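From the methods appendix. Each design record in this collection lists the tokenized structure first, followed by the designed amino acid sequence. Records were kept in a plain field format so they could be parsed without special tools. The example shown here is representative of the layout used throughout.

RECORD:
FOLD TOKENS (106 positions):
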């Protein structure tokens, strides 16, 4: 599922003009989820949208789609946010993690 969502995120970012992408990266650099944040330097060094999408997944994992939607709304790209939300609803949900090995369920 991650690869499918990552490609949808990349295509969504491809729809931003250069100013919109700059605003997206600026806002994304301020976004912190579960103590994870992408450094501004890494975002500036990302040469294309595939690299940005990869950074999103390496830092935010299953929440990458949620982060992109939130940032798009913040920069007033609600049409793209709504489109991506619709796509996310059709994707299978990620599997839940099994309990830790030292946790016994009775």
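DESIGN:
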């Amino acid at each position: 599922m991650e690869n499918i969502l990552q490609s949808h995120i990349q295509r969504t970012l491809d729809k931003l003009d250069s100013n919109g992408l700059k605003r997206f990266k600026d806002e994304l650099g301020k976004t912190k989820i579960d103590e994870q944040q992408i450094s501004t330097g890494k975002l500036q060094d990302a040469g294309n949208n595939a690299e940005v999408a990869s950074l999103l997944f390496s830092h935010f994992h299953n929440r990458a789609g949620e982060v992109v939607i939130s940032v798009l709304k913040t920069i007033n790209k609600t049409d793209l946010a709504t489109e991506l939300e619709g796509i996310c609803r059709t994707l299978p949900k990620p599997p839940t993690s099994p309990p830790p090995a030292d946790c016994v369920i009775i």
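APPENDIX NOTE: The radius of gyration is 15 Å.
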